[in-house]
Design a protein that fits this description.
This protein has ten helices and three strands; from the N terminus they run H-H-E-E-E-H-H-H-H-H-H-H-H. By secondary structure, it is mainly alpha-helical.
Length: 248
């Protein structure tokens, strides 16, 4: 691999990690171009989409592509890539050291334990239920329902290969558990219990990133991310609608 290919591979690795971790398109492009401009006298040219990244240098015919098979939210990895790119731009790291650290970061799984994610989802569900006007009597039931719903969402993402099916299954289970809780007198306000339990599933970050991409002029990626967030919201809504149709 010559120096130019090595540079493009490094830029693409940085962009891949950021895209898979939920970074905005303009931030990904800015990081890749900063690395290319620091390592080469030629300006970097990048084209970023939600499913793939293209990278080249100005005046060169060599173009490399990196596929983005999956996307999640991991802002810690985004911050670490930004920090590495700034260190490289300040000549603290060499290109080889940057590539090696990016490879190590890509292979490293920086996620909180599953039990902690479920516990956080439970606490968020109960807290937001109160904020939306719910009763304290419903707090414990909402926490349990929110935790169970998030657990179903997490494991369905691992087992089910159909995208958006995990959100549907989780919202369906949340609606069913909430109806059962009210019928068993474990809760009072069905609507606020459902709303609070669903909040950990709501695609808030993708919607925010879609709007920021549109405002930054990335119309293609902004529309793609907005559509993905809309389909996720529809899957959540359909799961609750099925419960209301057949159980209420």
């Amino acid at each position: 691999m010559d120096k130019q290919d090595y540079l493009l591979e490094t830029c693409l690795m940085a962009g891949k990690i950021m895209m898979e971790s939920g970074a905005e398109m303009y931030r990904v492009e800015d990081t890749m171009i900063r690395i290319a401009d620091t390592a080469s006298k030629k300006r970097g040219i990048s084209f970023v989409t939600p499913t793939g990244i293209f990278m080249s240098l100005e005046g060169e015919q060599n173009i490399q592509l990196k596929q983005i098979p999956a996307r999640t939210i991991n802002l810690e990895k985004v911050a670490m890539v930004n920090e590495l790119s700034r260190s490289f731009a300040s000549n603290v790291l060499t290109l080889q050291e940057l590539y090696q650290q990016l490879m190590a970061l890509d292979n490293e799984t920086k996620h909180f334990p599953v039990w902690l994610q479920i516990a956080a989802g439970s606490l968020v569900s109960g807290t937001l239920m109160i904020i939306f006007g719910g009763a304290w009597y419903d707090f414990i039931a909402t926490c349990l329902i929110g935790g169970l719903g998030y657990a179903i969402y997490y494991y369905a993402n691992l087992w089910v290969k159909v995208k958006f099916m995990a959100e549907f299954l989780a919202s369906f289970a949340i609606g069913l558990f909430a109806v059962l809780a009210v019928h068993l007198n474990l809760g009072i306000h069905l609507s606020t219990m459902i709303i609070g339990s669903l909040m950990p599933l709501v695609p808030g970050v993708p919607i925010t990133n879609a709007v920021r991409d549109l405002l930054a002029g990335h119309l293609l990626s902004g529309m793609a991310r907005g559509t993905e967030a809309l389909l996720t919201s529809c899957a959540i809504g359909i799961g609750i609608a099925v419960i209301f149709r057949f159980f209420l």
